[in-house]
Amino acid sequence: PNVWKCIGVASLFLVVCSLMCSPMYVFFTLNPIRIVYTSGPQLVFEDAFLCAAIDKDKLKLYYIIMAVLVFLPIIVIFIWFYYQIAAMIWQHRKPLISANAPKLFIKRTKTVQVQRKIRTF
């Protein structure tokens, strides 16, 4: 592909990732904390930030949004792909008897018989 198509796809990927991360900005807060290390007789302090959720209802909403954005498309694609394969197998099946016999059809009266099917692709 040309350069502009690569740049466009990379930009689209960046925008999609940013949109998926936006609930992190909305539902979580950064709280400043101070970490204390004890190394012998002296104390060492380090400033850091802790990502914490404010409210459990907002956190539940965040998990629902992430499940819909991530897992729902995967499940839909899986079901669609499974259906496509099943439809292809169903269309290409033949009775087991007709696969080995010549194309001579003799009509019989009231003979009900279950036949195995084979795939022919």
UniProtKB/TrEMBL annotation:
Q: Would you tell me the protein name for this molecule?
A: G-protein coupled receptors family 1 profile domain-containing protein
Q: What UniProt keywords are attached to this protein's entry?
A: Membrane, Transmembrane, Transmembrane helix
User: Which sequence ranges are marked TM in the entry?
Assistant: 7-28, 61-83
